[in-house]
Amino acid sequence: MTITALTAVPNSITSPSTFNTDMDTHLAELNPMISQMNAVAVSMGSVAAGGTAIPYTFSTTTTDADPGAGILRLGSATQNAATVIRSDLVGSDGTTWTDLIDSFDDSTSTVKGQIILMNAADATKWLVFNLASIASPAGYRNITVTNVASSAASPFADGDSLLFKFTRTGDIGEAGPAGGLAAGTPVASTSGTSIDFTGIPSGTKRITVQFLGLSTTGGDRAIVQLGDSGGMETSGYTSGIQGIAGAAAATGTAGFFVGADGSNAYTIYGSLIMTIVDPAAFSWECFGVVGDTSGQHYMSTGGKALSAELTQIRITTTGGTQTFDAGKVNITYE
Q1: Is residue 225 one of the residues assigned to a domain?
Q2: Which residues, 6 or more positions from 324, have their beta carbon under 8 angstroms from its beta carbon?
Q3: Per-residue confidence (pLDDT) for residue 253, from 0 to 100
């Protein structure tokens, strides 16, 4: 901003004949010069304040209309209750700030940034608002805000020089992959020939099946089967189980083995863990250890390629007809 120079310097000694006229001219030019110097002082204060700061003159008028060049008003007479700031596009320094003000709501966050209105001559008088959005009527902007702090309910007087300081909020970051371990709903294994867990979400990479006192009414071995959108896969497994203390080994293709034959004689405790090996081929591997109430422990291994992405798990028996009669089963996945 340019400060207009004084054209007349009254001097009663060197120019007595024009002194009165020079004084009138001097006084007429002095007030505009003072206003210009105040505007420069506000601009310098805005630089010192850091961030983005625009100088304004405050108006106590609350009407929704163009405040006029260099003027800022609020939507409420009680200043810290205001939900709208009405700011002209031109600051009190004569600078047009349209592009800058219009960028204030560019953040993708719900709170676009924070506005501090501060008395340029008295830093103890201020209001702080969170900015939510900006409307664009001709010549000015209606800025929707929520007050979060203030030095007083109404700290500004009509005509006060203000600094409008804005600090932008960062954009919302990209969503990361779903994390954490999710659990299914425990199912009592006290009836039925199979127990299904469905609705396993897309992108699941590991599933653990947990057995707590599982037993059946017959002698068939319990197994775990995998399924996709086409249904449950009942064949094509490479499955093996070995008793850790020397019990006989067994292999099969109907599912992943859980325990020994004769599940009706003992109850089973332990887990089978299935992990995706090749997502493009929908192939899974299995490893688990279970024990039964006879004191025997079994290590189970295997593999299976599905036709599509896994969506469900079934616990049943090798024959598929024997009934569960004790215990509880659940899954966790991630």
Answers
A1: yes
A2: 189, 190, 191, 192, 193, 195, 214, 215, 216, 217
A3: 94
